[in-house]
Give the backbone structure.
Amino acid sequence: QGEVGICQNYTASPQKQNISNTNFTYWQNEQLRFESESLRSVIEQLSLIYNVNINISDAEMENCQLFGTFTADSIQTVLQTIANRFEMVLQVTEENVFTLNEGTCQ
């Protein structure tokens, strides 16, 4: 756990490499887990996994820490849960573009 095998043309055998992203295997288990991750990091991961644009209107909110697990949820469900947790307002500005407004880290 926490390792991946890398094969390169110029080496004779695969090499192990450590992975710090707990959501690296989302495509296999359809589960996202965040343990004390900054909201900025969570948003970056969600943007890549769901292929959407997510903005946070208040830069101070980017450092809020998130704990939680999401299982095979839609991006709108995940973002609404995050918005509820931090008392934010989720806005869908256009298809696949979301903005989290206001909020508090407490």
Observations:
- Helices lie at 26-29, 39-50, 75-85.
- The CA atoms of residues 37 and 65 lie 5 Å apart.
- DSSP finds three helices and seven strands in the chain.
